[in-house]
Amino acid sequence: MLDIFDYSIIFILGSLGGFVSGFLGVGGGIIYIPILDYFLHKMGMKDDVLVKGILANSLFTIIFSGSVASYKQYKMGNFFPKEIIQTAIPGMCSALILTYLIKSGTWYSRSTFLYVFAAMLLVIIVRMFLARTKEVIEETTEAKNYQYRITGFFAGIITAFSGLGGGVVMTPIFTDVLKQHIKKASSISNGVIPCFAIVIGIYNLSSTALVSVSEWQIGYIVLPLVLPMIIATFFFAPLGVKISQTTKPHVIRMVFASFVSIVFIKLIYEIFFI
DSSP letter at 217? Predict the structure, then answer.
């Protein structure tokens, strides 16, 4: 069971996740997943059930962090509904199909999850640190609808596999491949992420969990664990959006890469030393 100290830690780290969600446009999963990994394991989830719990609770929390951040983008006039829709629909389909496959079997173990997660983060780190350091595109360029659809489809797959929300894939693709300004890329990502998370969240709420670790658990969603993080997002996700609008693009890129690097180091430690 969780005590008051645990809830305090969850709220504090959830605040950081909410801020990162708004600042980087990645949903906050980079922060939520290590929190959930630790506390769900502490509460009694193991192996492939633990992976299902991490994915389900991370994406459920991202519904709120992504929605709050996206609403703040809308209020600030930095909102792109056409691009969001083009990206979200294919990704919602691919994310839901893969989530069903993961829930239906035991093939996606925790060790497999860690390897997939680490490999994905390594690619992102290399790409972000080696990308040109000049101010990336001050004028937004036009991208084709099919490019958004393809990006969304693969981001949906990454979302289901990693529980990150897909922002760690979408933001670099939008900036480096589709040549979008990073602030537009962040806004589109923030708009797409809750769409992915909502369809998966509904599925997870209606699923029957193989292990129950709390009397306040619905499907795979453990409410005592996610609620402190959700509450924190309402305060800190809008702050992240606001600060990102006055931050230079290359600074956002470096912060993004640095956060991913920290999580990558933690994963490598878990894979090889635990």
Answer: E
Amino acid at 101: L
Distance, first Cα to last Cα, the chain: 23
Q: Which neighbouring-strand residues pair with 217?
A: 222
More confident residue, 270 or 91: 91
Two tokens, residue 82: 């056409």
Distance from CA of residue 267 to its chain's centroid? 16
Mean pLDDT of 105-120: 82
Averaged pLDDT, 114-130: 78
Three-state SS for 66? helix
CB 232 within 8 A of CB 11: yes
Q: Examine the pLDDT at 139 and tell me if it is beyond 60.
A: no
The answer to whether residues 88 and 196 touch, using CB atoms and an 8 Å cutoff, is yes
Counting residues of the chain whose pLDDT is more than 70, the rounded percentage is 95
**What is the domain range of residue 46?**
4-273
**What number of helices (H) and strands (E) belong to the chain?**
10, 2
The distance of Cα 142 from the centroid of its chain, to the nearest Å, equals 26
Single out the residue of 29, 258, 253, 35 nearest to residue 155, CA to CA. 29
The 10 Å Cβ neighbour count of residue 20 is 26
Query: Residue 116: what pLDDT?
Result: 81
Q: How many domains does the chain have?
A: 1
Residue 157 token pair: 């797959």
- Whole-prediction pTM: 0.81
Phi and psi of 164, rounded to 5°? -85, -15
Q: List Cα–Cα distances, 219 to 41, 81, 170, 201, 226, in angstroms.
A: 17, 32, 29, 10, 13
